[in-house]
Amino acid sequence: MSNPQTVRVVGGSLLLLAIPSVFWGGWFFESLGFLLAASGAWRLCFPVHSIRVQRKAYPRWVHGCLLLVGAIVIWVLKP
Asked: Among residues 37, 49, 64, 60, which one has the least CA distance to residue 4?
């Protein structure tokens, strides 16, 4: 995730993942869609800034922990 082109591809993928949230109702999918769209747009439009902020914010292993916690929360909520 240190290559701007890769970050742009991930941003576009997140925007695509946000599309189904428009069609599915409920607070969970609306929140998930908004967060995916915001993150995807930021990574797609400003990849270098996204890389810089992530490097300064926390170590790389923390990113893996955040992803794991997010997956666990989604599994527990079982939308």
From this structure: 49
29-39: b (≥16 Cβ within 10 Å) or e? beebbeebbeb
CA 26 to CA 6: how far, in whole Å?
A: 32
The per-residue pLDDT for range 24-69, each reduced to its tens digit, is: 888 888 999 999 999 999 999 999 998 888 888 878 788 788 889 9
Q: Which two tokens stand for residue 52?
A: 């810089």
Report the candidate in 17, 6, 69, 18 with the shortest Cα–Cα distance to residue 43: 6
Please tell me what DSSP assigns to residue 2: -
Domain ranges in the chain are: 4-77
